[in-house]
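Input set for joint prediction.
Command: fold jointly, output tokens.
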Amino acid sequence: MNDDERPDDSALTAELVDSLADLAVPERPPLAAITDRGRVYQRRRLAGLAGLGVACAVTGIALVLGLTGVLGAAPTRNGTAQTAAFTLTSYTNGTVSLKLSQVFDPAALQRALAQHGTRALVKVGSYCSSSPAAPSSIRLGVLPGASPGPAGTRRRAAPGLGNGQGIWESVTLPVKPSQLAPMVDPISMVINPAAMPAGTELFIGYFDLAQTIVVNLIYTSSHTCRNTQQPPGGPP
Amino acid sequence: MSQGNAEFAEFFAASWGPCLRAVAASTGSMTLAEDQVAEAFARAWASWPKVSHHPAPRAWVLRTALNAGASAWHRRSKETALTSDDIAAADSQGTGLDTAVLTALRRLPARQREVIVLRVFLDLDIDTTARQLGIAPGTVRAHLSRAMTALRGELSPAMITEIGR
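tokens >
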């Protein structure tokens, strides 16, 4: 620590650090005790998400409809980009499926989306929006398989959220923390770039503190971004 | 043991002590800190594919532990009203942590204490600390400055010299 401290802070800092180093701590528990507790946590989380299963099944069906019924013939793969963090697959019907497995490199994902015909602005820890707001990506069918919620509400937007992870579109309804879970399982969404109006792009933001993904349409030439670890109106 | 489990085991072995010390200093209770940190490591294990790629995994554990502690503190505060001094005095006995330091830390506002824990105890840089807390780097600097000023006021020069011996 030396880039912002006052000269006389160094002694205090050193003393604080030394004091902490001298702190006697109980012996580290066996690794098995931690992993057992982790399994309990996983089971608790799965139990809490059991209620979401039906919703996920419904959205899964909607996803299939989005890919086959609504958008035409059953899609076939047209190209895939895969990294450790994400898999991007484009289909002959023009849709692109995105599967996020872990925290991603925003620049790499943005490049891959562009190569797959999707104009996007991808950020981690930054929220971007247009004022006035761009049209709803759900209503336009940019995220096929999801249907718009009641006016003035925030709703789970993308299908395939098997772990309760929040992917949100629009920005009005507060989200209860209990609706969210850590990003453990992959998150999937289907994007239909052809439904994006001219002059817009898809904003995809990951927020570490809230462990949430936000997907919004924004105007390419008129949007602002601000650094934050929590999307506006999102979970605490 | 899979590669992921081996990596977690290594992380757990190296990080248990630093994380527990930091949380104990922040919360003022070694007993509670031990439970909170164990819970945080358990969650880290459950989320290891994600946590292992976090820019600062120890900070993830710390935040999870402190968040768990905040809930526990909220529950406990409904049962028994204790002052920070009570907790410091009761829990610092035999831990080796100087009561004066503990009390001084506990008297800091929560955000300043978090900044001290991440910036000083975990030695994260300003930008990483800011990302962890979801605040601007300038705000981190402001909290840090105020916290250091307050600690300097709480701990006399003579006391600072004594601390850590």
